[in-house]
Write a structure and sequence with these properties.
eight-stranded antiparallel β-barrel, single chain, globular, 1 helix, alpha+beta, AOC barrel-like
Length: 153
Amino acid sequence: MKRVSVLAALLVVVSLALVTTAGAAVALTGPGSIRVTDRQVKHIHVDGGLGGKGAGDQDFYRQLLYNRGITTEPIGHSDLMCTNTGTGSANCAGTYFLPKGKLMVAGVLAQRFFYELAVIGGTGFYQDARGTLTGTRLGGAPRHEFLLFRLSV
């Protein structure tokens, strides 16, 4: 009987340790950065105003995300929507789908050679994340960029 009680107590301790350890890895707990590259796989332009590019036009982008240091296969994707403001810039919002959760971004772009967007939230591991996304065009066709997320919670 003593052996059963000791075994049951040990099982409870191990179970609590596993639950505590699993809970600790559920969300970002401090500042961090993510470095990935992307490759554009789809672009849709919708002429929302008068003929030609102008205010109200919308552009939708789909990019595959890579971390070549880990694998040659995509680790996720992103969807970005930009609305032309008619002032030489575009108001953009997007979601980056990563293995441990999503990061949401938003902001105004004057161009896409070098840009910065605000990280306005996240899900999963990135729950409550804030910070910046800096994008740098690497060139090529299709479009290819280096992305640096600087995150805090």
